[in-house]
Amino acid sequence: MDRQPLAAQAGGRHRPEAAMNAIPPTNSPIVAAFAARTPGSAAAYAEARQHFPGGVTHDVRYVRPHPLAVARAAGARKWDVDGNEYVDYAGGHGALILGHAHPAVTAAVAEQLARGTHYGANHALETRWAELIKSMVPSAEMIRFTNSGTEATLMALRLARAATGRTKLLRLRGHFHGWHDHVAFGVTNHFDGTPTPGILEGLSENVLLADPNDEPGLAALMARHGEEIAAAILEPTGSTYGQVPLRDSFVHLLRTETAKRGIVLVFDEVVTGFRVARGGAQEVLGIRPDLTTLAKILAGGLPGGAVVGRRDLLELLDPERAAARGVEKIPHQGTYNANPLSAAAGIATLEILRDTDAIARAHATAATLRGAMNAVLEEMSVPWAVHGRHTGVHIFTNWNRLPITPTGFDPLALGYADLKVPRGLQTVTRLLLAMRTHGVDFSPWPGGPVSAVHGPEEVEATVAAFRAALRDLRAEGEIA
Q1: pTM to 2 decimal places
Q2: Nearest-CA neighbor of 163 among 252, 263, 84?
Q3: Which of 36, 104, 124, 459 is 20 to 30 A away from residue 405, measured at CA?
Q4: Do 315 and 321 touch, CB atoms closer than 8 A?
Q5: In 3D, which of 155, 63, 15 has the Cα closest to residue 444?
Q6: C-alpha span between 35 and 24 (Å, rounded)
């Protein structure tokens, strides 16, 4: 289980991204319509390619013939450099549950901006930020701020190895935890556990990959390697915010097995934190992880992350407490850790989420949208499905042509290889471009997180765009 099953099912070892994201055919009306609507974005992309590898500064933004160049955003909408308006489901890569430029958040940042952007010293905002996190996240006994989710997961794994004296790490195939060396394979490729370019073979040999929802396999892996494992890390609702959902029973089994064997359980709540609930997925699951990694919503749309959890683990960063325990302190720097601007945005956001029904509104809108989109699929006899939980919307394009019905679809009945969207799938690329042509920007899952400021108008516009995009795809022969 720990080195092979999904490698063959989900596309083998390498699956080079360049091949999967080839330039779409020039004779596609969908591509032509998108290009005709976005000449400014095309020009911006041509210039960006002179400066940035692939013309982008984040892999997820890469799409041919060109990505959008956005000029401004507000609420649930954004506008590109050509003046086209979009209902936005990219949501700052999931960071903006309150939408773009929320007045309370921007006012807090503007107020702090006038007082200074970086003190190089302790400040009151970081303390207030930490107090809010501790009041909301059940497992947060202590906190260390970072600059991103990648930094947070890197620190969490280092803490676990230092605390246990063990070397191995347990991960789930397809779960994303940033781009550092411990987690840079087994996500979109290299499902057999071999390292991606630039990663040391010795490091990858200390990573055990398990299949999501395989309870017997997990138990067998623990029996073989449990005494060697320092940490188990996972996205608690499943990879890509539940595109491949996890059974609650599987997560509870992992908590039982890790507790029994002294393994540090790390919940990566970079996406789910303050989105699934005020206290994240751990509040809903009723599970207390040893460490939790946070980012995105945590900092209100500005850069910022954190590791929170057990006091005894976080105290390995404390010079005095580490020395008192007779162990060496783990060093941790970071020029922008707990930056005052990020702290201000984070405080304003978390206070709104704590004191209002913003999360519940986002959940309700997402459920309405999923239902309406599935109704369109039924109406047009398209054997796809739209699924998700909480604020998630996942469009299952059924590339394996499974016998499903939209309204009766159960993603937990399928395996990882059926659910995980192969990167650069032509149908998905054309769907995203068609949706953009009709005024909706989905994340490339495809789908997106719904925010608290998406409302009936956005749902109506999204459903209309989805219907139009499906007609475009049918006209091109992408769907029957």
Answers
A1: 0.94
A2: 263
A3: 459
A4: yes
A5: 63
A6: 12
